[in-house]
Design brief:
Layout (H helix, E strand, L loop, with lengths): L1 H32 L2 H12 E6 L6 E2 L5 E13 L7 H12 L3 H9 L5 E4 L4 H10 L4 E10 L7 H4 L11 H5 L1 H4 L4 E7 L5 E6 L7 E4 L3 H18 L3 E7 L6 E7 L12 H4 L2 H4 L9 H10 L8 E3 L4 E4 L2 E4 L6 E3 H7 L2 H11 L1 H10 L28 H6 L8 H13 L2 E2 L5 E6 L2 E2 L12 E2 L3 H17 L13 E10 L6 E14 L6 E8 L7 H4 L1 H14 L10 H7 L16 H5 L7 H5 L19 E2 L8 H11 L2 E5 L3 E6 L5 E2 L4 E7 L1 H11 L1
Parallel strand pairs: 2-8, 23-26
Antiparallel strand pairs: 1-6, 2-3, 3-4, 3-5, 6-7, 8-16, 9-10, 9-21, 11-14, 12-13, 15-18, 16-17, 19-20, 20-21, 22-25, 24-26
Length: about 700
Amino acid sequence: MQTKKAHFRLLLIASLAFVWMTAVFGRLAYLQLFRHREYLTRAQKQQQRSIDITPKRGVIYDRNMHALAMSIQVDSAYAVPTEIVDQQLAARLLSNILEIPRDVMEAKLDTSRTFAWIARKLPPNKAEAIAALNLKGVYFQKENQRFYPKRELASHVIGYVNLDEKGLGGIEQEFESDIRGKNERILVMTDGRQRWFDGGEAQREKPADVVLTIDDKIQYMAERELAAAIEKTHALAGTVVVMNPNNGEVLAMANWPKYNPNAASKISEDMRTNRAVSTLYEPGSTFKLITLAAAFDQNLTRPDEVFNCENGAIYIAGHRIRDHKPFGLLNVSQILEKSSDVGAIKIALRLGPPKFYEYIRAFGFGAPTRIDLPGESSGLVRKLNNWTPVSIGSISMGQEVGVTPIQLTAAVSAIANGGMLYKPHVVAQMRRGDQVLPALGPLAPTEPKRVIRPETAATMRRLMEGVVLNGTGVLAHLDGWTAAGKTGSAQKIDPNTGRYSPTQLIASFSGFAPINNPAVTILVSLDSPVGLHEGGMVAAPVFKRIAEQVLPYLDVPRDVPIRARLIEASYRKDAASDAPGLEDFTPADFSAQPDQLPAAAAEAKPQERAPEVTMTVDEGGDIAVPDFSGKTMRRVTQMCLRLGLDPVLVGSSLATSQTPAAGVKLRRGARVTVQFGFVAQKTQKSAKKR
């Protein structure tokens, strides 16, 4: 009996244990099989915190692989409020360092129990100050921040980003999907005691790097000379474009006003406008290049054909159009040299509206160039059926038509290179690591389009050279290189009267050098200069100063002898002038052939006879002048720009002498004259042999 009772108890206990175990394991099975995802999600919410951080962006390089934009890692501070013992004390200490109201900091700490940003992308000094507090519950996380090492240089081309690293201008915006890496997340975890630790980083995908056609040294030259012109003329704004006319590569694109992309919050609407691609203006007399090119291409006139310019006035459909000066009989070459409006109108009338419109559109006006930058304007060219009887007269001299600087630069480049219109571009290639990415979309290569015959382009180059030698562009004459171009002085509309203003103008010069083998096309545009306001007076000298720095930097051989008077002028120290000694010359000095020069000047050999130099004293600066002996023009230019000196280069080949001498201390921006020559180099070699 007792045995049966014992067996019964064991059986009862076993049954109860079985039922209990079945319930437990059943529950476990139910939780594992049917509720696993739900409880896993709840656990992760309690134990993990996923923090989105800004992704790393690709590097933007200039054509020489110098970094213009890069991502650097900076500290961002965050808090785990549950770990902070005294939140009010922490808020007070942090608000003092970050210079924000205390109640704002307290609100940040109250928004979440597990995670709260304190401040993102801290300057090093503030990050160090917060770390020195050694507050429990305050941690740091590395984030990517965009950094522009050359500050304002090429800022309109590069663009800038906002706090979340999104591109908002220039290349940063145009290639946002390629430059910006994938969003990154940092996993922060907690243990059972609510202690937080770094759980690791998400896998990163390498973003694409961009290599530009921009040369940072040429860009610096363009920006420096544009800034000097703005200061001298008090113009409201300005633009300089430097392009290779043989392939459409933009070597420099400078705008004023400019901005520092490292301080995005301080960038105004006016500052971030890329005027080179976005701003419309009436080109004025520079558009006469299109008028004459179309007429020559249709064999409707010759350079020596004479037109009666009606003493400065012409009537079209009952409207009187006056010239800027009264001219009588002028041949076509002189019409361009002297920029006669009446002469240009008569040539356009011979061409006729349909053909004229056809050439205007062929040169790319009225349509975007499709340059690889955002915000490009199409320009303004009215359809032919919207032209009035007066339109052909107005458009022939650059009115009733709106262009952008990049459109005009591309059109002038077509004349320079023999008649081919290239698509302007600022991106050379995109890379991911060592791999060059396929050129797709806006980077896809396009075939150039012929707009005029090579013979027409050659004729136009000769006429444009005459503008520089004998016409309105004499101040654009280069020392040692041939140059061609056209001035423009386009009146702006007065908003008060609705008529053209006699004083508010767009002063411009568009040209290229050398003539027979053009290396650069340069456009200079100044908006509303004060005082002297004609393109030939204020824009042409800027072209000269930029070209005389860019050409030796590119090692472009000189193609004309250096005039003796010009050599002496280059040594003249004139702090009050941006073009030393230039005001002493007349057009005859620039156009005279060697046999027309005075005997002493014609016989002078620049490399054998150095002008007297008196300014060799120490200026008390902190920059020691290097020894340039035996160095090339390109190397001398690079060394001067790196030190902040202004090089004046005379002659060709290798450096033979310099002023001031090596070792003299100068201030930043001081002028250094370096003479180059073949004879001195040969003499030096023969002396060594002896």
